[in-house]
């Protein structure tokens, strides 16, 4: 290994040929120590844990789609009611798929029954003109697990 040649820099000018390391160490220690005023103004270390007023792992409260948006069910609005009906079987999707609360699901069943009785909705299938409507939920990925799936 090659060593760099010393050209007598500022260390030799201050201390001469003999270097007293005790003076250097003392001077370095005093440089690193904060004064009493500096201790009060030191910012907290960003690596230290922070205190939160809430639990970040807590799941958000699920709200029913109809309750959250304040949507009133109407038997004449067949296009909206068709969103909750299967296009293959004509059956109404269960609560765990639609994410509705029990109160709104019961009201939905009554409204769909009334709409079918009044002739606004077909009794067994979904209207073909409503097949391309945007989906409110994915029937293959339920919002909540089914109670019988244990």
TrEMBL record:
Report whether Ribonucleoprotein shows up as a keyword of the record: yes
Q: Which family does it belong to?
A: Belongs to the bacterial ribosomal protein bS18 family.
Q: What is this protein called?
A: 28S ribosomal protein S18c, mitochondrial
Q: Give the superkingdom in one word.
A: Eukaryota
Write out the entry's keywords from A to Z: Ribonucleoprotein, Ribosomal protein
Task: Give this protein's Gene Ontology molecular function annotations.
Answer: small ribosomal subunit rRNA binding; structural constituent of ribosome
Instruction: Locate the coiled-coil region(s) and give their ranges.
Output: none
Q: Which PANTHER family match?
A: 30S RIBOSOMAL PROTEIN S18 (PTHR13479), SMALL RIBOSOMAL SUBUNIT PROTEIN BS18M (PTHR13479:SF40)
- Decide whether keyword Ribosomal protein is in the record: yes
């Amino acid at each position: 290994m090659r060593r760099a040649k010393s050209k007598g820099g500022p260390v030799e000018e201050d201390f001469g040929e003999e270097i007293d390391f005790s003076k250097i160490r003392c001077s370095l220690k005093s440089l690193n120590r904060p004064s009493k005023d500096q201790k009060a103004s030191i910012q907290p270390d960003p690596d230290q844990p922070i205190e939160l007023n809430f639990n970040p792992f807590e799941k958000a409260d699920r709200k029913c789609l109809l309750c959250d948006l304040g949507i009133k069910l109407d038997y004449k609005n067949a296009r909206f009611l068709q969103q909750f009906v299967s296009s293959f079987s004509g059956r109404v999707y269960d609560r765990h798929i639609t994410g509705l609360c029990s109160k709104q699901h019961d009201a939905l069943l009554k409204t769909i029954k009334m709409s079918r009785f009044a002739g606004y909705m077909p009794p067994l299938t979904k209207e073909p003109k409503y097949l391309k409507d945007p989906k409110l939920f994915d029937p293959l990925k339920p919002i909540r697990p089914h109670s019988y799936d244990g």
